[in-house]
Amino acid sequence: MKRILSTLLAVLMIASSLTVFTSVGALSTAPEYSEAFNAIVVASGATIDSAAKITALADQNKVDTLLVIAEGKTSLSLKLSGKAAAALGAKGMNVKATLVGGSLVLNSNCLKEIGSKASVDFELLIDAADGFKVSYKCDGAPMVFESVPMAYGISSDPVYNIVSSDKGNIGFSYIEALTWGYAVKEDLTAKLATAPVPEFTDVSADFWGRANIEYATSKGYFNGTGNGTFTPNGEMTRGMVVTVLSRIDSAPDKEITYTYTDVNKSAWFAKGVNWAYENDIVDGGDKFRPDDSITRLELMDMLYRYALKMGIAGDLEGKYLNFMDADMITDEGDKKAALYCTSTGIVTGYGSGVTVRLRPERGATRTEVATMIQRFMKNAVLGGTVMGTSGKYADFITVRSDLNNLYNKMKENSAVRVTYLGGSVTVGAGSTNAELNSWRGITYQWLLDASPKAAVIQNNVAMGGTGSHLGAFRTQVDVVDQKPDLLFIEFAVNDSYCGTHSAGNATLYYEQIVRQVREALPECEIIAIYVTDTYASSLADAALGSVAKAHEVVCEKYGITSINVGGALWREIRETGKQWGDYVSDVVHPEDAGYRIYADCIIEYLEEYLTGAPTYTYSNTEAYGLPADYADKRNETMKLEVIQLTDESVFDSIKGFEFSDGISTSTKLEGTIYPVEADNEFTITFEGTGLDFFGSVSAEYTFEYSIDGGEFKEKKMLKHDAPFAFIDGLEPGKHTFTFRNKGKTGNGDVNSGMTLKAIFVHGLK
Known about the structure:
Elements: E1 32-34, E2 39-43, E3 47-48, H1 52-61, E4 65-69, E5 75-81, H2 82-90, E6 94-99, E7 102-106, H3 108-117, E8 121-127, E9 132-138, E10 141-142, E11 151-154, E12 160-165, E13 168-172, E14 177-180, E15 188-193, H4 210-218, H5 238-248, H6 270-278, H7 296-310, H8 332-343, H9 366-381, E16 397-398, H10 404-411, E17 416-422, H11 424-427, H12 434-437, H13 439-450, E18 456-460, H14 468-479, E19 486-490, H15 492-497, H16 503-520, E20 525-529, H17 546-558, E21 561-563, H18 565-576, H19 592-611, E22 638-644, E23 653-655, E24 657-660, E25 672-675, E26 681-687, E27 690-696, E28 701-707, E29 713-717, E30 720-727, E31 734-743, E32 755-764
Parallel strand pairs: 2-4, 3-5, 4-6, 17-18, 17-19, 19-20, 20-21
Antiparallel strand pairs: 1-2, 5-8, 6-7, 7-11, 8-9, 9-10, 9-15, 11-14, 12-13, 12-15, 16-21, 22-32, 23-26, 24-25, 26-31, 27-30, 27-32, 28-29, 28-31
Helix pairs in contact: 2-3, 4-9, 5-6, 5-7, 7-8, 13-19, 14-16, 16-17, 18-19
């Protein structure tokens, strides 16, 4: 996939701050290709008389950006001859200037405009010492532009900006960004101001879309509906939406050229309709239907077309929609729009697990439109790229976050801890050497090599045969208490094997893991890994299974990058004509060749978002926030507690059992008990609504249990290293639980094949 470089990036880190990972070398005023920046690069002060070398290098390396860098400076200049500017514009090139404090991009249309006007040379002067002051000069005189938008720029401050001239303020811009697009002779100066936050009486403090509404209204894109209200659940018409987008684009007043017979040229939304018509944001024809409620699909289509206009829409070949109602979208153009908006996180679905629906035909409320607009600006425009990778495995890597915090810690040469939480495939079963040849071993070695000055410490808490149910209870001691900076989670295959971990519960327990980590370690980076098994061979195009899709609901909600390494393996098998057994030793455990594909897929993401840090927006270490609502509503009230079986003090009474100190090297849980006498029993008091066992048995065992002194009931258990649900649905409060082990035959044999490792309690917050 060709990387789509941003027209809007926040502060791009200068070369001197990247020495931990990338040595850019001395910059030259002659155009050179930089792999680190994935662009053609020149130093500030360059004079470009001919574009031949730039366009040749761009074609050779498949890039579309000429990057001008002013190392450690707050001002720069660039001179282009008219012929060079026109040639770059004709090739679809952008010129990006970056310096301390921000950056500015001249798009290809701007370069064409320059080429048509500049008989000798064009000079761009940027000064970021006090906001941004940008001067365009043609043959030494101020330049007048006719086409818009001409250029985009950004500031690093979390405020909005006013673009002004000596005639007064002429426009507002994006949050953390500037846009210039007016035909003016004066210099344009960007001034920073604190963004006012409107208050609406019908938007409560805990309303799910409050922050989105505040964003859209403080930017001036939306207004309220009068008398201090916003009407958050009200309808949004097509005329309203194109007006909002035209405001974002700073559309100038122009002669009306549209052909619609149902839009009066004096209507308040006529300017917005005309902008949408002239910029191919909407189709032409006789009717526009300005008063019709806009559907979610129509809004996605407009946003996609606007992204195409801005040059930030990515390659969508080979992508597919993972929604229950995806077949409702039949038009190819509409499919691309939906793919773009869902892949960039602009639009999410309704529901959870495998039942997520896009509902393209549904009308979009005012709050939903505000939300999509904010996500569009943050994720697609200001986020810099349609996030992804540009390598062999791009189709299997869903990038929802960068590795900014991990990058910063490695750059500071601080100790970094990486935790691997998963099942036997994360352990490395099937490889010749798990510490060297499993996906875990290979990626850990890569992290060591990527940061030779920072100590990278591995915390391997993978445990074969286990899933996110057990993982949720282990998260505190095995993950949070170890304070990782990077966490890999791999549970999708094991979650699909056990009834306890069905797709219906996969979201519940997976979210418990993620939420515990996010609450306790908000700076920790999390990466979800999806492996595969032989049963997935029927999945078209190596698509995710139902449980992995349920995990994806959580990843989408929390902004977690997910990597479908299993899909990468299946594609390799199909493309090479090889067999499952050439890569995998049994149903699920890869041999070294299979693990190598898993690892290479993961490393592609690490390389691009860690060692490739100069091409992304790296800033101060930031905390990850929690979503306003839950992926699984049960998590709103459910809490988990672990009772560790370290000694007799945790029991009300116990007989016929012995204690042991250790459980496994894969967990920090301490203490086990196992029966040594036929006459065995223990009673424990807990506070909650349900109780699970974590234990191992070598065969089917029979047990008896009683709740709150009631009659004993019999259960059979055949589980290995997985929670066994004893009881659930109790009234909240304290309960007593009495347990007896009746053995394999049910007659009291006490073979040591049964070990109880911990008791897990479900409760309410």
